[in-house]
Automatic annotation (TrEMBL), chain A:
Pfam families assigned: DUF4130 (PF13566)
Source organism (scientific name): Aquimarina brevivitae
Lineage of producing organism: Bacteria, Pseudomonadati, Bacteroidota, Flavobacteriia, Flavobacteriales
InterPro entries in UniProt: DNA_repair_put, DUF4130
Domain of life, source organism: Bacteria
DUF4130 domain location: 89-252
Protein name (database record): Putative DNA metabolism protein
TrEMBL record, chain B:
GO molecular function: catalytic activity; iron-sulfur cluster binding; metal ion binding
Keyword Iron-sulfur assigned: yes
Keyword Ligase appears in the UniProt entry: no
Transmembrane segments: none
Alphabetical list of CDD domains matching this protein: Radical_SAM
Organism, as annotated: Aquimarina brevivitae
Keywords attached to this entry: Iron, Iron-sulfur, Metal-binding, S-adenosyl-L-methionine
Cofactor dependency: [4Fe-4S] cluster
Pfam families: Radical_SAM
PANTHER family, alphabetized: ENDONUCLEASE/EXONUCLEASE/PHOSPHATASE FAMILY DOMAIN-CONTAINING PROTEIN 1, TYPE II SECRETION SYSTEM PROTEIN K
Protein name, UniProt field: Putative DNA modification/repair radical SAM protein
Family annotation (InterPro entries): Aldolase_TIM (IPR013785), DNA_rSAM_put (IPR023874), Endo/Exo/Phosphatase_dom_1 (IPR051675), rSAM (IPR007197), rSAM_sf (IPR058240), RuvA_2-like (IPR010994)
Length: 257, 420
């Protein structure tokens, strides 16, 4: 059969799971393969399907191997590109990692195809990370937690945690990714990942928030409207910087204020 | 506090401050080492954007719009009949902290109309900054306006709490200043600028010896000039800008297209279009001076006092110097590659790095994101194909413009849309 040597490795969507898949690929000397998140699996009759069980120890071995052949920037690039969750990212990264192990890519070679594609994706993820650092809008709850909801294009929450931890070191906060159904909570000491049973409560329940919260939202809206210079109106530029898909959680774009 | 009253004040005092274009929140590093509020990594963040596409990074307000001066170009001039308001020091502190904690802003940009006198006003601005730093344990960004004529001692204090200080020169020529702001003296603008410059140098050199020396205005100084209010040429503007960069080590000079807000026979009439394209070309020139190794005289001079509006200044310069081109992208030195129209500094870096590994051809250059629609006429690469036709500068300009679509295109085209 034509595809008999094509393997599909299904992993759990975690970074460790992905690295475990790479470990298996090397150990079993698999040449032609697709690594995919098990929830995206489409049955393919002519391939060998294999479910990867995440082993931290195996993942660590791959990572340790990478330590020897990569710069810190390249390792960060692998992680960031992975968080893009773009279809086929696992295969691109597998190719990238193979080339790194084979020493076929130099750190600053901007004209090699795989490296270029990875760099482009890293840039997209980086942009989304920066956007989230900008567009997070906290609301103060009655029990003194600053809560924000987001829906980023990529899974950037792990990348923005330290930024918010450093910046808001003296306040409790929660940033919740509504699309991926998890959030990061900071209790003035450490951060932890949490998942809420009913995440809609963050949006619907006004009784959750402190009494002066709405007043500050209105002040911010007043300010935002006030700084606009109508004789310079440039809607194209406005939307380029502030695409509509982000408006949902932006206080200044809330029409009810 | 009474939110309704605050809201009214905010609306008046934000409106009055919005013509100050500086929104930079970068450059000032302040680490959150004390478990306080705010951590400034030196990288700016634009938290939102107005409908005119400008970044909203700071809470940019006036402490008051009461003013004893009567500068013709200024919306808060004494003789203008507008609503006046004033914030209390604590009100500004509370607003800043509450906005910052909600991640609305990177910090505060506090300016003010001048009430009573320069020192009295400057003292109030410093009080706000001092309270934020010492009482609120706040490490976010603070930009204070240096009030023209403020004393040296106050300017020294201001820099201890602020990240950036700025004096807006507003009118690029002395004669223009005399005409439009008869109460203000040119020296009054220069005095605080000079003091701040000296303090920055002093603190920096002390810091080298003694690490515990406090930081002084780590994000430096900036200034702003109004464009198109007094008939000044682009050369006048850019020579002034160059002077401020060289003489006062300004971090930034901003250019603000004049927006007619008042009827005054000395100024463009209300309804006159804001010179947005010209402003853009001036910023491009500013970048060429600061990052691309151009001297100001290469771009504007006695022969070419004004920038061309329909093409960018680098292309304009290259068309005047066709004898220097084409250059070989695989051999030319960095400085020369930076002078090629359509190649930005990031691309320069990529080219220099990538050509170590292989000779670059058109596909490589395209993949790096170089604007070949302009660059192709000025370079050769690892390919037998390159542009070899001998064209006059004007012919080449016409060719480039017909092959590219400028976002300002419709402001220049004379053709009827029927034929497009």
């Amino acid at each position: 059969m034509e595809y008999s040597d094509h393997h599909i490795l299904n992993y759990d969507g975690t970074f460790d799971g992905f690295l475990t898949a790479i470990f298996i690929a090397y150990e079993e000397k698999l040449e032609h393969l697709t690594i995919q998140h098990s929830c995206t699996t489409t049955p393919q009759i002519f391939s060998n399907n294999q479910t990867i069980i995440t082993h931290t120890s195996q993942a660590n071995r791959v990572w340790k191997g990478l330590l020897n052949v990569t710069t810190p920037q390249q390792r960060a690039a692998i992680f960031k590109a992975f968080l893009s969750e773009i279809k086929g990212i696992e295969d691109l990264l597998f190719t990238f990692i193979k080339k790194l192990f084979a020493k076929e890519i130099s750190p600053k070679d901007f004209s090699e195809n795989t490296a270029l594609r990875v760099a482009q994706i890293v840039k997209m993820v980086g942009r989304e990370k920066h956007r989230m650092e900008a567009f997070v809008r906290f609301k103060l709850t009655k029990d003194h937690i600053y809560v924000a909801t987001i829906e980023p294009d990529f899974n950037v929450l792990p990348l923005i945690t330290s930024h918010f931890k450093d910046r808001y070191a003296d306040q409790q906060w929660l940033i919740y990714d509504m699309k991926r159904a998890y959030g990061i909570f900071y209790d003035k000491n450490t951060t932890e990942i949490i998942a809420l049973e009913d995440q809609e409560i963050l949006l619907s329940n006004n009784a959750l928030f402190a009494s002066e919260e709405l007043a500050f939202q209105k002040l911010w809206k007043t300010y935002y409207d006030g700084v606009n210079i109508s004789s310079r109106k440039n809607n194209k530029l406005h939307l380029q910087h502030l695409p509509k898909r982000y408006w949902k959680y932006l206080t200044e774009k809330n029409p009810t204020l | 506090m009474s939110f309704d009253r605050i809201r009214e004040k905010l609306s008046i005092l934000a409106d009055a401050a919005k013509y100050d274009v500086s929104c930079a929140s970068s450059g000032g590093k302040r680490k959150n080492s004390n478990k306080g509020l705010g951590n400034n990594t030196g990288v700016g963040i634009c938290h939102s954007y107005t409908e005119d596409g400008r970044c909203v990074s700071l809470l940019k307000i006036l402490l008051t719009n009461h003013c004893i001066f009567d500068c013709a170009y200024c919306v808060t001039r004494k003789s203008n009949d507008i609503k006046r308001a004033a914030f209390k020091v604590q009100e500004v502190v509370d607003l800043t902290i509450n906005f910052y904690r909600r991640n609305y802003i990177e910090g505060l940009f506090l300016s003010s109309g001048i009430f009573k006198n320069a020192d009295y006003t400057m003292e109030r601005l410093i009080q706000v900054a001092k309270k934020l730093r010492l009482e609120e344990n706040y490490n976010g960004y603070i930009h204070l306006k240096s009030i023209p004529g403020a004393s040296d001692e106050l300017m020294r204090q201001a820099g201890l709490y602020a990240d950036r200080l700025s004096v807006n020169i507003e009118i690029p020529t002395k004669s223009g200043l005399k005409l439009l702001a008869p109460d203000k003296k040119h020296e009054d603008f220069m005095k605080p600028m000079k003091k701040v410059k000296h303090e920055i140098i002093k603190y920096q050199s002390e810091k080298k010896v003694l690490k515990s020396t406090p930081t002084y205005a780590p994000a430096g100084q900036s200034t702003q000039m109004i464009i198109g209010a007094t008939g000044e040429s682009d050369r006048d503007i850019m020579y002034s800008a160059n002077f401020f960069y060289k003489k006062y080590q300004m971090k930034r000079v901003y250019y603000s297209g004049y927006i007619p807000v008042l009827e005054d026979h000395r100024l463009p009439a209300i309804g006159t279009a804001v010179p947005i394209v010209r402003e853009h070309r001036l910023y491009q020139t500013d970048w060429l001076m600061r990052f691309y190794g151009f001297s100001v005289q290469e771009i504007v001079n006695d022969t070419y006092p004004n920038l061309e509006l329909d093409i960018d200044p680098k292309l304009g310069w290259a068309l005047r110097h066709l004898e220097l081109f084409p250059i070989d992208i695989n051999k030319a030195d960095k400085k020369m590659i930076a002078r090629v129209p359509g190649i930005g500094m990031q691309s320069v870096y990529k080219i220099i790095q990538a050509r170590k590994y292989r000779r670059l051809d058109w596909d490589h250059l395209r993949a790096m994101g170089i604007a070949l629609n302009r660059a192709q006429y000025f370079i050769t690469c690892y390919s037998k194909q390159f542009y070899s036709q001998d064209l006059t500068p004007l012919q080449l300009k016409t060719k480039i413009m017909s092959n590219s679509s400028s976002k300002y295109h419709n402001q220049f085209t004379n053709q009827l849309s029927l034929f497009n």
